[in-house]
Amino acid sequence: MARGTREKLSFAAAAAALAFGALELGLRLTVPLETLRFSWEQESALLGLDDQGALNVRPHHTQTYHDGPYAWTVRTATMGLREDADPSPEIPAGTTRLLALGDSWMFGWSADQGLTLPDQLERLLPARLGVERVEVINGGIFGSCAFDMLRRWRQVSAQLELDGVILGRPHNLTRQAAVAERRTRWYQDVRGAPFVDVRTYLALRRLLAPLTRPQYPAATGANADAATLADLTTLITDARAQGLDVWFVGFPTAMDEALNGRQGALRSFEGTLSPLGVPSAGHLLNERSCWGHEDLNHPSPAGYLALAEVTAELIAGAILADEPAARRMRAAPSCDTVNAPGPGKP
Fold this sequence. Notes:
By secondary structure, the chain is of the alpha/beta class. Helix content is 37%, strand content 14%. The chain is built from eleven helices and ten strands.
């Protein structure tokens, strides 16, 4: 190669390096790092991805949110469980221990720490079951699906002794469709593009992500439904093989569905639950006070308490498995009368 050509290439490389360095410096001075992270990469994010791209809740994390005038705080322990302290591996003496699995409803989105469905059950169940103490471990993961419930079950049951499992109706069919097809990453648009603190790279990654694949793959209704039932069947079969009791809790999807008189889905799960001997029940949440102030997709603490009252009856055996599904979706107790916060309540 001629000397002049080498000099031109060296000059071009130096100029490119200088331009890159100037761009990187400019981005570092003007663009905060957090604005270039995806939501699950942010240090303050409650929801995250593990090394295999699986959805999880960050452990040992505290964060406060607001639903209109109502402030609610989340605290998590080891494994991202929504607990104030780590559960012991063995069941404490005099305690009945249940594991609650589900999505944002079981996690308790829009409810303060101590007012979630599992928390309310801990207070209601001892008297209903005639035992000294009941521990209901909150293994919910918001944004999750039946596949995540199955993964969470295997994670927690391998580390903690249990007496039974409470399953919340899974929503999020989009998530289920994605994992049913690939069983890999939820956020397909950035697969293979990990976080590295180089601002130029992060800015390009952020710009190019929408041009690759959709962040949320479209749900394929029947396939997602079938995968949901298959994952629930596997979870229930695993739990039954360990000699554990299993219950299923049904509820509406959103406030408009509930207030318009549509039943929460129990019937669609009956074909899977009944042959496996899993009793089910739920609450219609058919009052405005059952729902968040601005969050119309999740219950208020009053709604979670009303749901807990029905679930406690279910676990105590007061709701018969052979009752029609429509009768097992209860309207009592009223969210207006239970002792927990909700819109329109003092």
